Amino acid sequence: MTTNTKYIFVTGGVTSSLGKGIIAASLAKLLQSQGYRVTIQKLDPYINVDPGTLNPYEHGECYVTEDGAETDLDLGHYERFLNVPTSQANNVTTGRIYQSVIQKEREGKFLGKTVQVVPHITDEIKRRVQILGKSGDYDIVITEIGGTVGDIESLPYIEAVRQLRWDLGEHNGIVIHLTLVPYLSAAGELKTKPTQHSVKTLMESGVQADILVCRTEHNLPKDLRKKLALFCNVTADSVIQSIDASTIYDVPNLMLKEGLDKIVLKKLALESAKPELKNWNKFLRRHKNPKTEINIGLIGKYVELQDSYKSILESFIHAGAENEVKVNVESVHSEYLNDENAGLMLAHLDGVLVAPGFGERGIEGKICAVKYVRENNIPFLGICLGMQMAVIEFARNVLNLKDANSTEMDPETEHPVIDLMEEQKTIKNKGGTMRLGAWDCALMPGSKVEKIYKNQHISERHRHRYEFNSDYRYQIEEGGMLATGLNPKTGLVEIVEISNHPWFIGVQYHPEYKSTVANPHPLFVGFVKAALKHKKSK
Ligand code: GLN
Hints:
Layout: E1 6-12, H1 20-32, E2 38-44, H2 56-59, E3 63-64, E4 70-71, H3 74-82, E5 91-93, H4 94-106, H5 117-134, E6 140-145, H6 155-168, E7 173-180, E8 183-184, E9 189-190, H7 193-204, E10 211-216, H8 222-232, E11 239-243, H9 251-258, H10 260-267, H11 278-288, E12 292-300, H12 310-323, E13 325-333, H13 342-346, E14 351-354, H14 363-375, E15 380-383, H15 385-397, E16 405-406, E17 416-420, E18 435-443, H16 448-453, E19 457-464, E20 466-468, H17 473-479, E21 481-486, E22 493-498, E23 504-507, H18 522-537
Parallel strand pairs: 1-6, 1-7, 2-5, 2-6, 7-10, 10-11, 12-13, 12-14, 14-15, 15-23, 16-17
Antiparallel strand pairs: 3-4, 8-9, 17-20, 18-19, 18-21, 21-22, 22-23
Bound molecules: glutamine.
Glutamine binds next to β19.
């Protein structure tokens, strides 16, 4: 088989959480900065068809693409680094692979053959890997394989990589293996043995790593690199160190210094050029040299885990750099918030963001937070469930509709100001059935959001089942909360803002999925600006 697209496979060894996604995204950035069209794909070995049904406690945030795929949070990193949208094809799970193979079997497509892991599952993996390459949109496809080499569930993926390397031919497919070189303080030494074992495990499956990227807390001396090269069967310049960084956005430059891009391009028989990282470095300079700082409260129920609100936190980093301010995000657990302690917990904040979410737990605390910031003129951004809570709070406390609620929380409420969307009413299955992906939105002329976006037509990504109940629109607008963003086709209310508040905006969609280093999201930029202004006015 001949191919124009080159493939890079990233596998992981020794332990999980080494940051394969960041390494893949950083390498992609370096290749993109030399003129190559690059995309990154993640293969996840679990059996869920997608992470949409996974609790954020289990797997962190569920990231949503333009075309409505519910995906692994690493895809967020890919987009934030590359500023190129990903799609359904960029995240594939074992569940999805088996689902398509079993579907084909039921259709009789295997013509009476016994369906097996090799070749049928591995063929389907290989087909999925090559969908992006065959689209003609990319020169290089980086495929990150989730999990750790040696895991039972990773085996079919490693086998597919082994086969693909033969199918693709020399210089068309390479393997980067990410490992850990631990430092034993008692011995005062960096240890190479875990890496040696990990490379050996990979070789037992017939895959030789071409490049080793070694996570480490200390610089790897030359002789240690030589030793790793010798024992792991790679050239000395293929041993790359990935030292702990203070921000993930430093990693592309660290990889550049190590020459990861050069060795990759050499092994793929591609030309290298001088990377164009001017804007990236400008962002980094601003991010690292803020002129001042602000404190933003993030009101949610998954606050113990950084990964649950990953895209929101990254959006604040982009918007902070844009405003040259450090944004300190303070997590506030919504379950512990009430009218009595709201002042104590929130008064010192320069802005409050009420987070997306599902289910009843913690929502009364979110409503208290909205009430406090509305009454105290603190800048407010409500995202998805956060917007819905803002509408409920307004209905209860301004319009005096005391039991106003969302039918998600109280199906019997007398005032369902947030209600299940019509098309959701007949849906029984949970997976992949929400309103997902990009939808157009028309902004009201003269509104705050129109000024923020500097546009009347926007498109944003969604992930929800419930919506603003238009039966209450007149009453709510009369009270002073305006519907300033509408779906142009259905009239669905996507944005609310309060006209006599300095900065109070609730959005049904998720702006955080679209914020990138190259394009910080205007709503986050505007929110940070408003928070800064609020701080100065105190
Ligand atoms: N639970 C709400 C809904 O389904 C909000 C979803 C969200 O915040 N992503 O409409």
